[in-house]
Design brief:
By secondary structure, the protein is α/β, with parallel strands linked by helices. The protein is built from ten helices and nine strands. It is globular. The structure holds S-adenosylmethionine (SAM). InterPro entries: Methyltransf_16 (IPR019410), SAM-dependent_MTases_sf (IPR029063).
Length: about 270
């Protein structure tokens, strides 16, 4: 369910933390005391209504936060699944040459968003994360290769540690759209993520003149406003969608779009 879009929801740093920082990065309540078997492996099935298909995502919760699904991912998948109806993302799904979209996902975790995007949009999607996360991303890409392929999509997996120039150059610049969900959380990651967005959104993108980063985010800490302040120096940041709060939280998932500001405006900002 969505609610009216508030102004600058991310800039509210006058408030206390939205969710207790210690619980916010722990597992959801139903997973906090799992059996040994659940700790090792947990499959989650997602119904993609628009293509009448399911995808399956393997989570490995005992291996850390990169191996479990985060709430913002579900919101983004729902918007992608509604792409034929009234999703605010629809204008982003067109390529001038009427070819498949080339999409990059940052901080993919289990890969749900990127794999769903490939199946739903018939897109070529590169899902990325830190090197130790890649085996599970490969596993999930392979587990869904049939449903993705039948719908005209393709998923590739690549290491992309934010701010690592070799990694960023390795995935190339030929993208039409960049996606990310729940990638703003620890403050030491703000700068590397901004550097990555700067590379892709302000660099010489070969596919599109204006490349957009669509980010689904669940605000947890007031300190996150520092990320948005840094981002607004380089990018125009707009709210595209907000979910209603759920599970005792005071805020819901917010989906933003980031577009690079004209080069002349950002020359004075250090890289
Ligand atoms: C909170 S999880 C969200 C995962 C997934 N996007 C989702 O919504 O389910 C954050 C993700 O960012 C990745 N990440 C953290 N630091 C990173 C870095 N420096 N470079 C690349 N990815 C990073 C983590 O490995 C993790 O998969």
């Amino acid at each position: 369910m969505s609610t009216p879009i508030p102004n600058n929801v991310d800039d509210d740093d006058s408030d206390v933390d939205i969710i207790n920082p210690f619980t916010s990065l722990m597992l959801p309540p139903q997973q906090q005391q799992p059996s040994d078997k659940q700790q090792l492996l947990e499959n989650k099935y997602y119904k993609l209504k628009s293509i009448k298909s399911n995808i399956v995502i393997r989570q490995l919760p005992s291996q850390g936060l990169s191996f479990q699904l985060w709430p913002a991912a579900t919101t983004l998948v729902t918007l992608l699944d509604n792409h034929g109806i009234n999703s605010p993302l629809v204008p982003l799904f067109k390529t001038q040459e009427n070819r498949p979209l080339d999409i990059l996902e940052l901080g993919s975790g289990t890969g749900l968003v990127g794999i769903a995007a490939a199946a739903l949009l018939g897109a070529n999607v590169t899902i990325t994360d830190l090197p130790h996360v890649l085996p599970n991303l490969h596993f999930n890409a392979e587990a869904n290769s049939e449903v993705v392929g039948v719908n005209g999509g393709k998923v590739s997996v690549a290491a992309l540690s934010w701010g690592d120039v070799d990694h960023m150059e390795g995935v190339g610049r030929e993208f039409d759209l960049i996606l990310g969900s729940d990638v703003v959380y620890h403050d030491h990651l703000y700068e590397p993520l901004i550097k990555t967005l700067r590379f892709f959104l302000l660099g010489n993108n070969t596919n599109k003149e204006v490349l957009v980063f669509v980010m689904a985010h669940l605000k947890r800490w007031k300190k996150e406003s520092a990320f948005f302040k840094m981002a607004r120096k380089l990018f125009d940041v707009q709210v595209m969608h907000t979910d209603s709060p759920s599970n005792g939280s005071r805020v819901g998932v917010v989906v933003y779009q980031f577009v690079g500001k004209a080069a002349s405006n950002v020359n004075s900002v250090p890289s």
